[in-house]
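Input/output pair, single chain:
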Amino acid sequence: MKRLVLPCALACLVAGAPTRAQSPVVTIATVLSVPSVANFWAEKKGYFREAGVDVRVESMDTLSKAMSLLATNQIQLAQGGINAGFFNAVAQGLPVTMALESGSTPVHHNFLVRADLKDVIRSPRDLKGRNVAVSGVGALSVYELGSLMESVGMSLADVNVKPLAFPQMGAALAGKALDVALMVAPFSDAAVSSGLAVPWIDPEEGVIKALPMTSLAYIASADWIKGNRDVAGRVVKALMRAGRDYCDAYHHGPNRGETLDMMVANGIGRDRATLDAMAWQAREPNGDVNHAGLADIARIFKKEGYLDKDPPADKLVDDALAADAAKALGPFKPINEASALKGCR
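Output:
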């Protein structure tokens, strides 16, 4: 179809017929996760089309890889887990900013202890000299582990931090290469059900003080927003609509089945039943970012040597686009108001 559009447009011009202006093109790069399904939902349901924007969604491995692409406006938005790379980019003066939250408390990140050590590792103090897995260098899990160690007057220097992808952690626990792992569902569920590990500490229960914790976000090219604020606003509104649809599915609303199908179709997970049974990460229906939480994340990253200098607080987030979208969409209530799940309200 794309090959046929250009000849048709040229023929119309020759005939003197009026043509419609081409929709602005926006590229969103996303790290696949359960909340990332909102990108594909906005595509499928026509929210981008209704906004008059041609949006292309592409996948990537980690949000940190997107910073240079955003800074040079090669892509306009990137969605994924907050990490030290974002804070470093802002601290270095790169034109990137957070435009919309896409994942927050409860995030269901849990420290698991290897099963044979459940009576040995009881307190964070018992982690001294132990091998502890986090999901990546400078990942949000580094902040969570740093906060845990700080809660008992220790630091990351007191443990052996092992960056590992979530799918690799189970095998490392089985081989006793790890003592503790900070995991997410469904990997944590699999490790527990197979007897490899036992649940230990949820960092959102008494460790992290600045809650809700913003864990996922859409990072935007600040130059793109500055030069295309109307377009950016329409894209953010479309993403917020899709985020609210995600919240309805999160609360087991009538669209949950279709959302699960979309997750499988877009490679977010292979097993529909597993996706349905696992705990989903929540998000803020109005796209609100917890500024105090971001400040604490940056503080721990700097304390532990992941940041060279403090990023300017006023450059971290552009709240205006989300605020305008939330006002236009009005208050949100999940369709399934009987849901007892926390978050996504």
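Residues 229-250 form the longest helix (22 residues). The chain has two domains: 22-103+212-329, 109-201.
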